[in-house]
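Note to self: keep these together.
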Amino acid sequence: MRYFKPLQRHGVFLGGLLLAGLSCLALQLLAAPWLQALEERSGDWAWAFMAEHTQERRLVVVDIDERSLSEIGPWPWPRATQARLIEQLAQLGARQQILDIVFTTPRADDAPLAQAIARHQPVLAQVFALEQGGTPSVGHLAGALVWPSCPAPFASAQGYLANAPALLAAASSTKPPPVVGHITPRIAHDGILRHQPAIICMGSQAYPALALAALMHAGAEPHVALQRGHWLQAPWLLTGNPVLGQVPLNEQGDLRIPWRLHPDSFISLSAADVLAGRVPPPLLAGAWVLVGSSAFGLNDTIATPFGGVASGLQAHAQLLTALMDGRVPATPRIAPLLQALAALSSVALLYALVRPAKLPAQGAVSQRMAARARRAPVYLLPLAGVGLALLLWLLHGALQTLAGWWLGWTTPVLFVLFAGIYWGVLEHAQSRIDRDRLYAHLSSYLPAPVAAALALQHPSSAIEAQTRQVSVLFADIRNFSAYCEARPPEEAAAVLHAFFAAATRVVQSHGGVIEAFQGDAILAVWNGELRHNDTASHTNHAQQALQAAIDLLQAVQGILPDPAPAGLEPLSLGVGVETGPAMAGSFGLASRRTHMVMGRTVTIASRLVGMTADLSHPILVGEGLAAQVGGAGLQSMGTFLLDGMRVPHHIYAHPLDASASPLV
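Structure:
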């Protein structure tokens, strides 16, 4: 059994862990999409709350906004106007132009735009249709990576919208193939844009995202390779390009968009101002320019952590700056292990509140009581679980925004939260069980009403007693000392145990309370329990005490050995009962107290027991009880000066004759 003691000591801890684990598993099985959405939404809150408010000058946004449409005309603009925008940006010193625009429809006036594209080589856009069967393919795809095939992690497109062939032909005839990147979003179920496919497959060709194509074009290095990440890296990495460095991708080959910069951090110019020459040249000198549209009705709006309606330009701007800085968020392959480590660390802190304190060696029961007394209050365990869960959530947000690590928080947070709640519930249940067990033990050594009152009070060194009108029964086994001396201890203990059990049953059946076991004697009291703000007494307790004395004498006839062992006086019971005032309560220091009933009434009852042998009557009654029952059926034995008392007392005897007793 000693091997199971550690499990018993830590039953609350193990039970809480088991229930927390089962609850987390059930939630993962039944509500995985909801938990993932909650995790992503909390990531949005972190991005929005921790967004950096700084001025980003490396990338300037040229916006085809409502004012541009008002001044220049409705979209689509003539190709000459679009070509003039490219030419104007080049004259203002833009180092690279990135167009978040797809020129799908061939037009008669394509020549000016084709010449501008061929001359300045802006990064063009194309868009794919993912998971949408039957989507038509329009335009001519370009910008495929030099890969023999498209690897498995990347999604395959069902269709596309690409640029008109005439616009690409002019650029291809005079310079290297035009640089094109896709602008295909990965919209979540709640409509917010959080991921973009890094590569999209069409046939056997692999097409990079717009931001990746722009950085590869800037470094004049079109080559990039895909490799599996190590345990501390993302599941997939795009490597082999000195400008890109290592770009982390998730298991689906997507880029997580880092909403690190507040939208106000980007310099946004109206396309109308650029075309009208109202932009200071130094503003665009050496900068990258991202051209797109925020005008209503041009179908380029997305939902972001910063708002439900935003321009698609924002996603590309965030990705471009993150790739420049090498700060694309990554989920390391070791993330599940890190989640488990975070959960176990938090659980260890909770366990420090749950586990018993180490105490010096002492009795097992007192050690357990002292250990539980030194634990944290039970209600703190759920609160501590909530606090640690909140701390893990905040830590995840800090790692996400400051370090670019997306580890996932729902599993460890829920596990710690459930552990704190279950431990609190189990600790409360264990405390109730311990309290009930302690009360059961306490009430077996003290009168039950006294034990119930003490269980609700703090220890005190003050006298807590009241003077009450009580009835006292004192019963003693005569000749028991000689019996113990002559007989084996086990036999004497069995006789005493049977006597105590019978006396307890008889006294309790008549409404009394066993106040104390004193050697081979018992002290029982009626109406002795403390009652706050209650001065009423039981008026019939005298009759109950006398009837209990009669029944007790009958009950011990089958308990005391009869006949007595050879050479011993027979065992017999002497009973004294009296009614009168007595003080009942608790006395002593808070560290060691006793409950007792004291006063002349108790003294008289104990002296009456001593006289039962001299007067040859097993039940002697004091004058106070005789007055309460009216004296009917009691036999006067005269007046005696009891041992240790200064005033003589009238003593009565009960003849144990049913016809003479009004109580039988």
